[in-house]
Amino acid sequence: MPEENILPNGSGRPVPAPGTPMVDTTQGCRVGEFRGVAGPYWAIRPIGGGTEWEVAPEHTRPATPIERLRAENARCNARSRGDVL
Fold this sequence. Notes:
The chain is of the alpha+beta class and 85 residues long. The protein has one helix and five strands.
C-alpha cells in the first residue's frame, strides 16, 4: 500500500478517493461523500451537496449501495419539496 494513502496521524486507515460514499456512524449513520483530510479528521458532505462536516476516520465506514441510493433519493425528494436548492 502506498504511503501517501495512509493518514499522517497514524490511524493506518487508507484515505478514500474524493466522492467515495461514506457513513458517519456518530450521527445516526448519516451518509455523505468523502471530500478530503482536514487535520486528524475526514471532511464529509451530504450526497448532492451541502455543508461539510468533519468526523474522525474511526467513526466512518464505506456506504453500501442501498445506503447511497437512499441518500440520493432523500436529496431528490427534499429538492422537489423546495427544502433544498
